[in-house]
């Protein structure tokens, strides 16, 4: 978890570091990112980096949460299943991602980094366990189509059309 010393930094310095972190995590997969790049570009001491974050993964998770806060709308586990609502939320998520400064980082997250975050899938699994089968299926499909659309924009329309049909199949099945 990001340390309080980072949160207490003057806004300009914190934003400068966040911009450098975003650049690093948008350019390199987490496995290839380097603290040395970050401290040099942010003009901070290596020791300061570790006063702000436990490690590189901690800094990455912090930036990922900033991205999600900006582009993701929360969905309640007990929310009534509505195919149009799901479809609209996915369209909105894709659009907000594609038009945000976080797009390159999110693409790397989905293609390479998601698997490197400790307990990421355990947390995701526990969130999904609270949902009924219909909502669970729609959530899994939603995440998959987002990944497909961001990684293969040429086939976005086809993937979204198939996704919408799948949501309506789910709606009929219950």
Provide an overview of this structure.
With 174 residues, the chain is mainly alpha-helical. The protein has helices spanning 4-7, 11-27, 35-42, 46-52, 56-71, 83-98, 103-113, 120-129, 133-151, 156-173. α2 (11-27) crosses α7 and α9 runs antiparallel to α10 (156-173). The longest helix is centred in the last third of the chain and has 19 residues, at 133-151.
Count up the domains: 2
Quaternary status: single chain
- Beta strand %: under 5%
First CA to last CA: what distance?
Answer: 41 Å
CA gyration radius, whole angstroms? 18 Å
Mean of residue pLDDT values: 90
- Number of beta strands: 0
Principal-axis shape? elongated
Element order, helices and strands? HHHHHHHHHH
Total count of helical runs of at least 4 residues: 10
The chain-level structural class is: mainly alpha
- Percent of residues in helices comes to over 70%
Taking the sheet with the most strands, its summary is: none
Low-confidence segments, given as residue ranges, are: none
Attribute tags:
2 domains, Tetracycline Repressor, domain 2, mainly alpha, elongated, 174 residues
Can you give me a brief rundown of this structure?
The protein has helices spanning 4-7, 11-27, 35-42, 46-52, 56-71, 83-98, 103-113, 120-129, 133-151, 156-173. It is an all-alpha fold and 174 residues long.
Write the layout of secondary structure elements.
Elements: H1 4-7, H2 11-27, H3 35-42, H4 46-52, H5 56-71, H6 83-98, H7 103-113, H8 120-129, H9 133-151, H10 156-173
Helix pairs in contact: 2-3, 2-7, 6-9, 6-10, 9-10
């Amino acid at each position: 978890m990001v340390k309080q010393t980072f949160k207490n930094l003057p806004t300009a310095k914190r934003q400068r570091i966040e911009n450098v972190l975003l650049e690093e995590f948008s350019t390199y997969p987490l496995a290839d990112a380097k603290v040395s790049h970050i401290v040099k570009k942010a003009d901070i001491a290596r020791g300061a980096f570790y006063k702000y974050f436990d490690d590189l993964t901690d800094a990455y998770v912090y930036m990922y949460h900033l991205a999600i806060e900006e582009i993701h709308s929360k969905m309640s586990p007990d929310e009534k299943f509505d195919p149009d609502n799901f479809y609209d939320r996915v369209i909105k998520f894709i659009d907000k991602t594609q038009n945000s400064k976080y797009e390159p980082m999110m693409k790397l997250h989905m293609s390479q980094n998601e698997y490197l975050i400790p307990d990421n899938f355990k947390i995701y699994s526990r969130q999904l366990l609270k949902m009924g089968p219909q909502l669970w299926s729609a959530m899994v499909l939603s995440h998959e189509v987002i990944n497909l659309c961001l990684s293969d924009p040429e086939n976005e329309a086809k993937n979204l059309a198939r996704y919408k049909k799948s949501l309506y199949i789910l709606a009929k099945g219950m």
